[in-house]
Amino acid sequence: MRVRFWGTRGSIAKPGPATLRHGGNTSCVEVRSSDGTLVVLDCGTGAHALGRELAHRSPTRGHLLIGHTHWDHIQGFPFFEPLFTPGHHWSVYAPGGRGRQLEETLAGQMAYEYSPIDLESLRARVEFHELTEGTLELGDIGIRTQYLNHPALTLGYRLECNGATLVYATDHEPHTLHPEGAAAATALIHPEDRRHVRFLEGADLVIHDAQYTLADFPAHAGWGHTPVERAVDYAILARAKRLALFHHDPKRHDEAVDRVVATGQARAREVGSPLEVFAASEGQVIELPEPVSQGRPASRRGRSALLSQAVAGAARVLIVDDDPVLVTELEKALESEGVRVERATDCESARRAAREARPGLMLLDLRLAGPDDGLDICRALRADPDPALARLPVLVLTGARVKESDLVDAFAAGATDYLTKPIKPTLVRSRVRGWLLRAAARV
Ligand SMILES: [Zn+2]
Ligand SMILES: [Zn+2]
Question: pTM of the entire structure?
Fold first, then answer.
């Protein structure tokens, strides 16, 4: 596979003399495989220059994989020339939530008020596909998708071709920074962080969000990005070979990005890791050798990533909390996801509601005023003879200053995930939608 960076900047384009080396355009990465399959990862402002090059060249068949639809990942879409070139054929993929959201969202940014051209003006043959977690085959590339942790439903993409592996994981926040202050590559305590590492396993190249450092992360917690030290930890734990730091903060000029790279390299050296750490830079080309011809990559096994409308439909969430203000807040956030909310305040009412309403997810406050604390409810659920209750995903709600021991206890009691208060509506929406789609896919 041949990888070329067209946009590496996070959040907003930042052209100018201070960003010449690492680039000012937002997310866009071109991937070509040995049989000529063309995949474009994200469609930020970097897609403009790529589109100019592609419009008059072959192949005219391409696949555009969007991680999520925040502006910095789709602003190049209305300026991507192949979409306006007759004879081209493009398939556009992005995480699906409810209904035909992808087309609506892309049409939204091209509405009359914002754009002189609309979605109807595309002259190429363009198809839209909504994705969930699973696998997909595009030409000789096997692709696996997995949700990332971001305040919008976001997918990471793992591409495998003839023994070469590339992982694209941007706009992702660690599920927890615990254990804090630990040495590089210390074992992770959150099952979702361990799942993330498995997604990166053995990759020849990982392109990973590294917008922050541990020092500036606290001011940006909940914004959905990774401190470089953690990106390095993940890559080391996954035994990846190379790590391209990506989604550079728009506040960092080239020398500041160099300092982030130095921090990452020092982190790898600390544990004697051979991991190569560098900053993804606009225009950079990386060849990933394909050692096995016509291999059968692991990415081709498993459930299809294409989202069926049956899975994307209505869903229920059970909220177990005795704070009416918080429950109303959560209900409001989830309404926009088309989620029906059931309420309970103690162990008995929670089990009854779970049995009757068959929710796809439980949100559980760890500290309840009544006799049952959150962990008791969690343990009771896991011991329930009804398998739907025993394996119901439980997202626990904790105080902002959660201690590591509290998390270890919660996971030991059977919790699946956690969110800290105050609850950020965008984060709760994307996290709940991700868990509901996973739960629906299991049925
Ligand atoms: Zn972004
Ligand atoms: Zn984003």
Answer: 0.96
* Structure tokens, 433: 């939608």
User: Residue 44 CA: which ligand is closest?
Assistant: 1
272 contact partners, CB below 8 Å, separation of at least 6: none
Length of the chain, in residues: 443
Which DSSP string corresponds to 130-174? EE-SEEEEETTEEEEEEE--SSS--EEEEEEETTEEEEEE-S---
CA 72 to centroid of ligand 1, rounded, Å? 5
**Beta-carbon neighbours within 5 Å of ion ligand 1:** 72, 171
The CA 294 to ligand 2 mean position distance, Å, reads 35
Cα separation, 302 vs 135, in Å, equals 6
What is the Å distance from ligand 2's center to 150 Cα?
7
Tell me the pLDDT tens digit for each residue of 177-206.
999 889 999 999 999 999 999 999 999 999
Helix axis angle, 425-442 to 324-335, nearest 10°: 70
DSSP letter (8 states) at residue 82: G
> How many Å lie between the centroid of ligand 2 and the Cα of residue 433?
16
Quote the ligand 1 centre to 147 CA distance (angstroms).
15
Q: What is the DSSP string of 24-63?
A: SSBSEEEEE-TT--EEEE--STTHHHHHHHHHTSS--EEE
Helix boundaries (H) for 57-129: 71-74, 101-109
